[in-house]
Amino acid sequence: MWSNQSGLDSFRLFPSNDDDTKPQLGFSSLDDSPQIPSPLPPPCIEVLPSQVSSSVKPTLESVNLDGLTLLKGRVSTHDVFALSNSDLVPGKYEGGLKLWEGSLDLVKTLRSEVESNNLSLAGMKVLELGCGHGLPGIYSCLQGASAVHFQDFNSEVLQCLTIPNVVANLPVKSQSPGADSEVRFFAGDWSEVHRILPNLQTDNRDSNPSLGYDIILMAETVYSISTLPALYELIKKCMSRPHGVVYMAAKKYYFGVGGGSRRFISLVEKDGVMVASLIAEVGGGSSNVREVWKLQFKSLDR
């Protein structure tokens, strides 16, 4: 089993003055005042690399994944959103500036799948949902994916963190692996963002089932019970049929918000369209086990 890496975040339930170098326990919410209706989600837009933030510059740090070194930026929620001590503000900020443990679990799993010939990313169309730092998508680029599209709830996360991370990690010479991947960035809520993702045409899926993404990646996206149905429906709209695959890294249970990998897998199994298999389990020395799951369509006629 893999051990926890320093510099990673677990979800935390209570605020802390610590920075993101110390593991936490659950989600923190900025405001404990009585609940008010959630604000409307931000509009769904494509964020161009030229729109990278000029005012917030991430500090780059190395992350060693058993011999594979990637770079990840560090920026604060205060600098980007004028928030402090918060991992989640529903409808405004969904934790994309943190590097969660599941993101690195997912990169390790993808690497293991590639090395064991269970997966080839070369020439694949890849979508990373809730990308944040975007390390799984970046790894896909380095493995020769033809297209990697990064999605996050917040355009600010893409502008201040994801795009700089991609630029820092990917080679610039055209002959290098990953340099020729089509890389694009999309912001928006899971219930609407499919409308701007390219090459989906979901209304015509039955007549052209090969549309969509070959591989969908997501790490730590199943924390909130209320968002699970929208996330699952988005996956079905985006996933190429019949051979598309989803790799999902998550904790079994997220304290304070109620979601988790098993809750999401229960939703998938109840729907009956996909089959899910557990391919990695990460103890990490804590009671909350982390998992990596693989989802595929059950049969060619669905």
UniProtKB/TrEMBL annotation:
Chief location bin: cytoplasm
The record's annotation in SUPFAM superfamilies points to: S-adenosyl-L-methionine-dependent methyltransferases
* Gene3D superfamilies reported for this sequence: Vaccinia Virus protein VP39 (3.40.50.150)
Q: Which UniProt keywords apply?
A: Cytoplasm, Methyltransferase, Nucleus, S-adenosyl-L-methionine, Transferase
Q: Is the keyword Nucleus in the record?
A: yes
The entry's cellular-component GO terms read: cytoplasm; nucleus
| Pfam families, sorted | Methyltransf_16
GO MF annotations in UniProt: protein methyltransferase activity; protein-L-histidine N-tele-methyltransferase activity
Q: What is its EC number?
A: 2.1.1.85
Q: Which InterPro entries match?
A: Methyltransf_16 (IPR019410), SAM-dependent_MTases_sf (IPR029063)
GO BP term, pick one:
regulation of translation
- Which cell locations does it reside in? Cytoplasm; Nucleus
Q: Where are the transmembrane segments?
A: none
- The keyword Translocase is annotated on this UniProt entry: no
Query: Broadest EC class?
Result: transferase
Under the heading PANTHER family, the entry gives: HEPATOCELLULAR CARCINOMA-ASSOCIATED ANTIGEN, HISTIDINE PROTEIN METHYLTRANSFERASE 1 HOMOLOG
By sequence similarity, the record places it as follows: Belongs to the methyltransferase superfamily. METTL18 family.
What is the designated name of this protein?
protein-histidine N-methyltransferase
